[in-house]
Amino acid sequence: MKLYKILLTLAAALSLQTATAQFTALSNTAAVQQTLAATATKTQTISSDFTQVKNMKMLNDKVSSKGKFYFKQNDKVRIEYTQPFQYLLVMSGGMIMVKENGKVSKINTRNSLTMQSVNRVMMDCMRGTVFNNKDFSVKALASSTQYLLKLSPVNTAMKGLFKNIDVYLNKADNNVSKLVMTENNGDYTEMIFSNKKINTALADALFSVR
User: Residue 162: CB partners within 8 Å, gap ≥ 6?
Assistant: First the structure.
């Protein structure tokens, strides 16, 4: 498994480009940070379906896929693509594990600053702690129904991967509804979550790859 493909998969998991005209910038984010922190302590697991669309600007083309997404406190993520291909990516305990065509690959993020950064932002998005991520500057906006956290990379590794990441959270439950990544060349990937379930039992075995 090539590192580049793993990075693309993780980038796709952090992605959706949406018009922001209905959002207004928040001058004081303290209340939002407190709200997200309170929700994070109550959210032990998340499971949902997702639909992903990769938008390639130069080719004027889109590639669609579907799958299942799982998160378990404190650092476990499973992204399982089921259509039109099967591909599994699991993040747990500082390891990134991939299964493709029956073959399993493992990466220790401690050996790569880039993978550490990608792993950290993924977990921060799920835990609502993006304001604490030193790899990005964060601007907060709000609409009547959502918060939008716009992440701009400040370190070299993240600048090489992303132009920006946008995190959309529903005010109703303060959980992520859309994750946004735009690449430096203008390409972006849309990932839309549906049928979300909070705090259902998820076995630890779900976050291992064999």
Answer: 11, 14, 151, 153, 181, 182, 183, 184
Query: What total of structural domains would you count in the chain?
Result: 1
pLDDT tens digits for range 110-159: 777 677 777 777 778 777 788 888 889 999 999 999 999 999 999 887 88
Is the CB of residue 100 less than 8 Å from the CB of residue 88? yes
The SS3 of residue 127 is: helix
Phi, psi of 163 (to 5 degrees): -85, -45
50 and 65 Cβ atoms separated by less than 8 Å: no
Tokens of 54: 């990769």
Q: Quick one: how many helices (H) and strands (E) in the chain?
A: 4, 12
**H helices present in the chain, as ranges:** 3-12, 30-42, 113-127, 156-161
Q: Which domain holds residue 66?
A: 3-207
Looking at residue 81, which CATH number applies to its domain? 2.50.20.10
Q: One-letter amino acid identity for 6?
A: I
